[in-house]
Structures are given as structure tokens and as C-alpha cells.
Amino acid sequence: MCLGVPGEVVEIDGNEARADFGGAEKWVRIDVVGADLSVGDYVLNHAGFAIRRIPEAQVERTVELYEAAATGEVADDD
Amino acid sequence: MTDRTVTLAHGAGTERTRELLADLVVDRFGDAPADPAGVGLAALDDGAVLPTDDGAVVITTDSHVVDPPSFPGGDVGRLAACGTINDLAAMGATDPLGLSSAVVVEAGTPVDRVDAYLDSMAAVCDRVGCPVRTGDTKVVRDGEVDEVVVTTTGVARIERGAHLPAAGLSPGDRLVVSGPVGDHGVALLAAREDFEFASPLTSDVAPVAHLVAAAREVGRVTAATDPTRGGFATAVNELADAADLGLVVEERAVPVADATAGAAEVLGIDPLTVACEGRIVLGVAPEDAERVRDRLRDEPGGADARIVGRAVADHPGEVVLDTGVGERYLPVPTGETLPRIC
Amino acid sequence: MTTDALSFRDPDRADRLRDRLERLVAAVDGDVRVMHVCGSHEEAIAEFGIRSVLPDGLTVAMGPGCPVCVTDRPEVDEAVALAEAGHVVATYGDMIRVPGTEKSLAAARDAGADVRTVYSASEAADIARETDREVVFFATGFETTAAPTAAVLREGPPANFSVLSAHKYVPPAMDVVADHPDTRIDGFLAAGHAATVTGTDVFESVVERHDLPVVVAGFEPLDVLAALVFLLEDLRDGEATVTNAYPRCVADAGNERARTALWEVFERVPGEWRGIAQVPDASLRIREPYAEYDARRRFEIETPADDGRGSDCICGEIMAGRAAPRDCPLFGEACTPRSPVGACMVSDEGPCRIQHAYGGDRRP
């Protein structure tokens, strides 16, 4: 369910933002994203609506999480 | 259950298209050519090879309808010239004698537009040295076609036995693709569905005859096909089918342009399964593969040529995709490509 | 993010995660059956060939996670009837080929009805702005698409716009599946993107009620493998907890603004999920204040009686995780992507379609 695609916000205009999906740009609605957005933020796009601002730190955290899973040691949590 | 009417899915260049062809066409016209050096309709190759006393004639034909008729990177005129020239090239006929062009125009279409399409066609013909030698024009009522249908036929002479059959692969042969895949299909889908991609998505529509010729200069090319409808996935399955060999494709080696990959991801489609119009997939003897790839990279339209896979004796007729994480089969896509949300 | 996508698909790390899974499966003495409830998980698992590398003794089964597949046939019939009545019907590309009792929207379109593919609910409203005709948005999907539909209704779309809601809400379906006596599940992989909206707390009740671990998982190959590791760790330790293994997209509290929009516009009512049965409080109906945009209240919709066709189709069993596509007598014979009987063969997320399209999994 629910094809979600992350993209980087490059422009904001009212309740829409232009987001860069790895080279393809598309306007998406941001009225239900539930966070204040700035240019440079990453958002999760689903069917033309951003539904989540992705905190940059969480991307690094993801790699730590993979490591924790691979080694069986719990990474230092925040 | 049978389909009682022709549906759009029958035209999508997928398994359904093949079924329709098998039912309607191959049954009637599919007799094998008497001369074993010939290639007939039953081969469902890119064109026919008709042996003559002093060589062979290669002939191919294609009708071109595209929605929209003018799209980022080209138009139906450019597509019609490239499509036929590329089918000839995929048969190994890289120096065509000429084209015929039959145009069906919808009444009400501005003359300027038809003029522009024919200009595009002429530009390709000039570049390849393959003039339009004969043609036909018909006008039909408003709504009977969508603006224009352009049918081109191409003819070339080659030396006897010099054609590149789809069935030519042997185990160990490498697969070389001349550039990024899926650009045409993704650009068209985005344009047709009115998706507002702010950055350019451009069709790759271009002739590939020079690429095939260059490859054959430096290495032993054993098979060729141009991935059009149904994309790279359909093309490699056709090669596997025709040669009755297995193929292993390294997914990470298959070039996909960033913008195309991003748009495809947003649309939920696989760039390996949608059309290219300016690429060629070659089977190459293993010892020559790197040389062929490097030679292609020196040619216009070949800068991103890559070795993407190999032929194996295992799993005949099937293409296995190595995703880097695991393996799966890469089948022929089954129907019309639609964007999805899920 | 997408430029970093390769770090989520790193083959070396995938190998190490697989080794870890192998050790964990051995530690719990094998035969673990995990269910995911998300078509995108199935798609990711199939697309990347993940099952080809799972250790023996670990089965990942498909649950009722494909919104297209669980859209009930009478709902498709309603959309077809509206299209044939001369209204513009706009919907997501996934829904176009889903068979109704007599036909799909694709068949209605081939016969001349005006059926449009849209990428978002707001594009459907845009179509209504450019025509005087009635435009009906056939709205399918779970929380992630229901919230956008709600956002469009809240902003006051044109008067000729309406919504035929087939939206559904996932968590109750997990209960129904877990409760079924024939379904053996040792843990759930929960759908990451639905959880983006709902948050993770919503799964606490599933954990408590069924004493099963739930891991919220993402959709990159390493996300899936890591989530399976966490699930097996819980099983090894005999713990039933909710673990968020997709923190980059899922906040524990979810997305409050999206939820507010969702529950302001929609209410949960009992309804049929195709093949599974009546699921309590899991179909989303438009609330009274937005009733003017409810296609079911705006139009008299006449649909054909269910002819019982497809009665051999075991879509429901498959969606409930009790059967695999190849268990179906119709699979690959009477039912193919070209001529589907059940929705499971239609959607890109449908388990039968995926099984057919990716040709099954290959063991190296």
C-alpha cells in the first residue's frame, strides 16, 4: 500500500511545494504535511501530497539502525 | 476467457500484443522463408530479410501514433523516421537505401503542424543519409485519428548472412546497452497524464544505425534489438526467447537517467518496462564486450553505454535480474503502463 | 534522499542482515511466519528478490494490505455505473483495470465513458474546475490517500465535484486476520506509510490483544530485512512490543494534521473488504458536514446484482494470508493479468499479480 517517495523541497508557494525527486521535479500539496517546511527539507510524497517532513538526522539514524540489526548490538540511542 | 474486442492493452507492446499477433498475423503469413538465410514474419524480429542472388534485402515497416504527437525531445515525424531506421539497424542493416512515408491526417489539423512533423522526419533522414523516396497522404474526418498517423517503411541491402538475428546469442555473450533506458516512455507518460514535472524529461528518440555500425567495426556482435514498446524488459526477453537461452541482468548496471528514475519512482513505474526510442541492446562476444562498449561511448548517443548482463545456458527463455540484494525474474510487462499510487 | 537511496540498498549490508536473520531463525528453532499488511511491502520484497535470500524457516506472508485488492466489487460497480451515466470518473491508475461485476473502468472507457487517471485527489478537483459536467473522484486507498482526499474536501472544491469513497482503515483488518483460527502469524510487519499518518501507538492494541510483536517497517530492501531482524529478536526474547524500524518516515505520534483532516471528513463504519469479510469500523464514510460532496448521496447509483462470478477465486483467502496465489485453481489459467478474475491479479500490489509479474522468487 501507499507508494511513498521522498523528495527535497526546492520552492514553496502557499500550500504547494516544488520538490526534487532525484532529478524530476513536481509540485506537491503540503497542507497535511503537519510541519513547517523550508527549502532544503525532505518530504515524503504520497499521491501528490507531502505527508511527512523527514528529519535529516533520521536518515543517518536509519543507517545506524541497519548496523544495529546486522550486528545485534543496540546502537547508542538518543 | 477471450477478449472479443481489441483493447488498448493489445497495443502496448507487451505479452498481449504478441498474442494478438500470433492469432491474427502469424497464422496467416508466418510460413518460414524457403531460403534459410532469410528471416520471415514468424520470427517476430525487427524486420524481414529477403535473400537475393547477390546479397539480401532487409525491409521493415511501422505505424507511428503517439499521444501527444509533439512531446519533449521530439515528435511523431522524428519518431517515424527513427523507428524504422532503428528497426533496420537492429537487423544489422545500418546503411539504408531509403524510406517510404504514408501519412494519414485528421481533418482540421493545422498545416503548420504537419509541416513541422515532416521537417523533423527530414532532419533525421538527412543525418542518416536515408531519404524518403516515396509516400502517400490521406485525410480522414475529424476524430477518425488523433491528428496524424505516420507509417514508414525502410529498405536496405546487406551482404548475404550479414544480418543480426534476434536469435544470435550464445552462452557467455555479453549484453551491451547503448544508453539510459526508459526516457521516452517516462517522458510521454508524464506529458500525457499532464504531470507537472518542473524539470525536463526528454524522450531519447534518435537514430541508432551509427551505433550498430560502430560496434560491428570493433567486435563480434551476435544479436541486436531496439527496446521500444515494452522497454528494456521486453527487448531482453525477446533475445532470450529467440535464442532459447537464459539471460542474467545486473540491475545496477542498467543505466537510467536521474530525472527518469525520479519521475518513474513518483509514478510508480519501472523504467526497465517502458519505451526507449534511441537505444540499442547488443549481444557481443565476451572478449569484445569492453571494446564495443568503449567504442559506443565515443559515438553520439552512446556516452552511457554499459555492459549489463550475460547469456547463460541455464533457465532458457528467462531473464534473471540480479538486484544486488536478491534475484528475481524480469518478465515481459503485461499491459498498458499506468501510474499508480499503491 | 533519493540520491542516498543506494545506502538503503547496499548489497554488503544486505548480506550481513541476511546472516543475522539466519542466526536468529536458528535461535528460535525455525518455522517463523511473519505477515506484512502492505502491498508496497510485497512489491518491495518481490521487486528486489528478497524472498530469494530469506533463510529457510522464515516465511513472510501477505496480508490484506493492497487497497486496490480489498476494494469491494460493488464499489467498482458504483464507479462504473457513474461513468456509464455520463459523468466524468477520475481515479488512481491502479483502479482502472479492477473488474467489477460486469466490467472494469477500463472496459467502460474503451466503450466510450469518460474515465480519467489522476495522480492526486487535487487533480481530480482540478478537472471539475475546468468542466460543467459532474466529476466523481473514485477515492481508494488507506489512511495515506484518505487524508489527501479529506484535505481536498476541506478546502471547498467546486459544486460539480464529488467523492465516491472506497477508503479503508488498516488497523482493524489486522485484528480480523489475527483472530482468524486458520491464520498462523508469529508477528506483523506494519505498513510504514500508513503509520506515517496514524503513528505507532495504534498498534499497541494489536500487540495487547493478540500478544504478537509488531514492527513498523519501511520499503527499501534494507528496511525490510532490518525490520525482520527486530521482529525475530522480539520472538527470541519472547517479547510482544511495537518497534518503530522506520523512524525516518514514522513519528511515534504520527502526523496529527493529516489525522485531524482525516477524522474531520471521514468516519469509520463497518464495511466489506473484498474477499475478507465484513471488517468492523474499517471503511471510511464521508461525515454529515461534507455530505454534499458524497457521490452516494448525490446520485442514485444503480449497480448490477452480484452474479457470483469469480466464486472460485480465493482472493480473500490470499489476502487473509491463509493461501498463496499458486494455491488458487484459477491462478495463471483462468486468471491472468490480461484477464483477471480477482483484484489480486489486477493491482501492481496484488499478491497474484506480483507472483505472476515477477515470476516467483528465485533461489540462487
TrEMBL record, chain A:
It comes from the Archaea. GO terms for biological process: protein maturation. One of its GO terms (molecular function) is iron ion binding. Belongs to the HupF/HypC family. PANTHER family: HYDROGENASE MATURATION FACTOR HYBG (PTHR35177). NCBIfam families: hypC_hupF. This is Hydrogenase expression/formation protein HypC. It comes from Halorientalis regularis. The lineage of its organism: Archaea, Methanobacteriati, Methanobacteriota, Stenosarchaea group, Halobacteria.
TrEMBL record, chain B:
Residues 171-320 form the PurM-like C-terminal domain. Residues 45-157 form the PurM-like N-terminal domain. GO terms for biological process: protein maturation. It holds the Pfam family AIRS. It comes from the Archaea. NCBIfam families: hypE. PANTHER family: CARBAMOYL DEHYDRATASE HYPE, HYDROGENASE ISOENZYMES FORMATION PROTEIN HYPE. Belongs to the HypE family. This is Hydrogenase expression/formation protein HypE. It comes from Halorientalis regularis.
UniProtKB/TrEMBL annotation, chain C:
It comes from the Archaea. Pfam families: HypD. This is Hydrogenase expression/formation protein HypD. NCBIfam families: hypD. One of its GO terms (biological process) is protein maturation. Keywords: Iron, Metal-binding. GO terms for molecular function: 4 iron, 4 sulfur cluster binding; carbon monoxide binding; iron ion binding. The keyword Lipid biosynthesis does not apply. Belongs to the HypD family. InterPro entries: Hyd_form_HypD, HypD_1, HypD_2_sf.
